[in-house]
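User: For my dataset I need records formatted as: sequence, then structure tokens, nothing else. Please produce one.
Assistant:
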Amino acid sequence: MTNRNPAGLRRADPAGESAMSACRHTARKRGLAPALAMLCAHALPELLPCGPLGHALVPTELAVSANRVWVDGAVFARSAGSETTLARGTVVALRHVPERDHGSQPGDGGELWRSGLVWLRLGLSEGLLDHCVGYLGGRRCGDTTLLRQQMVMGSVADVLIEHQEAGAVLAEFEGAGLPLPEATATHLQRQLTSAGRTLLRLLGASGFVAGGPGETAYLSELLAEAHTRPGSARE
């Protein structure tokens, strides 16, 4: 039976802001690492969340402290398998391959994690849009700014519509207390990836400076890919 109101989905504080809205806001204003730490603590506390193939992108603190690993819905002792660190930076990229015959425990939180990833990436994309608007609004082209160029304005408007559509879908499911279907989540992830790439093209070379918005957009895509089932991104 489908859980119509996953634990902790609706309320995060007495003021009434949902945990997912808080994660979105944190991603927009503070970036990936703080928002990811918030999502991990809320959806899969004390677990190292890995996708179907064992890939994970996690806060540094969790990469050090977690004793158990969540792999696509099953929970394993972290020692029960092999683990490779792929990259370190503001977050840690790794791959954990569990020993399937070691004895896993059924895990929960998958529905909350799936929707949370979309909320988080929406916030990151909104933060990228904020940066893009500020950057283009400060760059002059003739007697106007780059932001006022017709093609640029059209692209920014398209991204804004993508954000509004994604936010409306997420709010609808959250408001009804329903889990976000996997197919819907995959579709929204593709929308956000497309929006991010559009914004990076508008930023030109400035979007690919080390530590800049391009790096955050890349990590955002990597996070989505890590938790997408093989083949579903092409459906």
